[in-house]
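Per your request, structure below.
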């Protein structure tokens, strides 16, 4: 369903080629300069990788005048926790509120599904991305946080070295570690 005001809607299979293009163009534009040459991948994501991810993640797109210019993905995990990733807006369309609108939409949908907290991560050298998430109410995760979810717990272990892991509580319920 399209949010008529903003052009936000769920991506469908026919959108995957454009989603892939946005991910690869934007990743190259912003991450090639900060990722060591021997670690930078181009393409960042293959069509096969995206097709596999789309089986477990809900991709949301932002359309402007009929053109997809931004994308974000959401995956519900365990214990009311969701993961947001692949938040990318084409370089020529950044700083217009598109990324913030995508995240706000995902947060509303996640909360309606009973998700209490969203976790996401970024390269520690991507200061612009970390600052963006902080402006939207995300804060760095505590090093001792335990989610009992292997993928999330691995990212938490990488916090402060390989990644910056951030979280945002969507509800006022007090959460306890699931250890």
């Amino acid at each position: 369903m399209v949010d008529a005001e903003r052009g936000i809607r769920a991506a469908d299979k026919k959108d995957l080629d454009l989603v892939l293009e946005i991910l690869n163009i934007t990743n190259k534009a912003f991450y090639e300069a900060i990722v060591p040459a021997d670690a930078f991948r181009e393409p960042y994501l293959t069509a096969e990788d995206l097709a596999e991810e789309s089986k477990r993640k809900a991709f949301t797109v932002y359309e402007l005048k009929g053109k997809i210019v931004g994308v974000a993905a959401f995956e519900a995990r365990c214990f009311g926790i969701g993961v947001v990733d692949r938040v990318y807006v084409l370089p020529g369309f950044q700083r217009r509120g598109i990324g913030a609108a995508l995240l706000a939409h995902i947060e509303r949908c996640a909360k309606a599904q009973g998700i209490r907290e969203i976790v996401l991560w970024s390269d520690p050298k991507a200061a612009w991305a970390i600052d963006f998430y902080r402006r939207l109410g995300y804060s760095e995760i505590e090093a001792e946080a335990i989610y009992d979810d292997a993928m999330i717990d691995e990212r938490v272990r990488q916090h402060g070295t390989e990644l910056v892991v951030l979280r945002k509580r969507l509800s006022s319920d007090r959460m306890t570690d699931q250890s």
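The first helix runs from residue 16 to 31.

Regards,
D.
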